[in-house]
Amino acid sequence: MESNLRESREREGLSQGDLGEAVGVTRQTINAIERGRYDPSLELALKLAAHFDCPVEDLFHLEEPP
Amino acid sequence: MTDTALRSPEASTRSLYAASWAVGSVLYGALIAAGYPLVGVAAFGIGAVAAVAINRRSDRPTFDERDRAVFDEAGRHTIAAVGMTSAVVFPTMVAARALDLVTWPTWFYYAAFFVAGLFAVWGVFVALARYRR
């Protein structure tokens, strides 16, 4: 899964820690999602989408098949 | 942006939490080996209480869903490793004993029962998880 989380976060001028605190996870988790090393749960994806007031598809999408 | 912070508060809490368990456990083993079993138990208890207190006093979640995913993955690998090893070692040793090629040391019986018990518990939790879903 690919994400645009970093772009959305940076657009709002948030640190990873700020965003993590806002949605109830650690800074490391936000970092792992942004680096593509961790796929968030549906609940966390929805929380992130709600935080940025956008559809979840704007933040996360399936990787294009090669 | 600021993803360069070296130590976040929750990372420090996690380190303290793990250190409490580790120090308590090391003291536990060391004091038992040194002939002070009750002091060892007390040290382990203090480490455990300290870890729980550190977790509860933190104003942020110490562990989140990614930590749980990491623990789940580690648990899966552990149970798979124990299972695969046991599936090879124990039948081999049973056959070897039946052929009078080896004699089982006492600890091997305990290990066999421990593994059997471990997988019995695992089976119960698998059944419970299936029932709930």
Question: Concise description?
Answer:
By secondary structure, chain A is mainly α.
Q: What does this protein structure show overall?
A:
- The complex is a heterodimer of chains A (66) and B (133).
- In chain A, helix 2 (16-23) packs across helix 3.
- Chain A is built from five helices and two strands, in the order βαααααβ.
- Helices cover 58% and strands 6% of the residues of chain A.
- Chain A is globular.
- Chain A has a two-stranded antiparallel sheet.
- With 66 residues, chain A is mainly alpha-helical.
- Chain A has one domain (2-51): lambda repressor-like DNA-binding domains (434 Repressor (Amino-terminal Domain)), CATH 1.10.260.40.
- Mean pLDDT of chain B is 90; it is low at 1-5.
- Chain B is mainly α and 133 residues long.
- In chain B, helix 1 packs antiparallel against helix 2 (37-57).
- Chain B is built from four helices and no strands.
- Chain B folds into two domains: 7-63; 74-133, no CATH class.
- The interface between A and B is medium-sized, with 23 and 14 residues.
Question: Could you estimate the helical fraction of the residues of chain A in percent?
Answer: 55-70%
Order of helices and strands of chain B: HHHH
Q: Most extensive chain contact?
A: A-B, 23 and 14 residues
What's the CATH first level of chain A? Mainly Alpha
Biggest β-sheet strands, sense, barrel of chain A: 2 strands, antiparallel
> Helix count of chain B?
4
- Which structural class is indicated by helix and strand composition of chain A? mainly alpha
Structural domains of chain A: how many: 1
Total number of domains of chain B: 2
Poorly predicted regions of chain B? 1-5
Q: Classify the secondary structure makeup of chain B into a structural class.
A: mainly alpha
Q: What's the overall average pLDDT of chain A, rounded?
A: 93
Query: Helical stretch count of chain A?
Result: 5
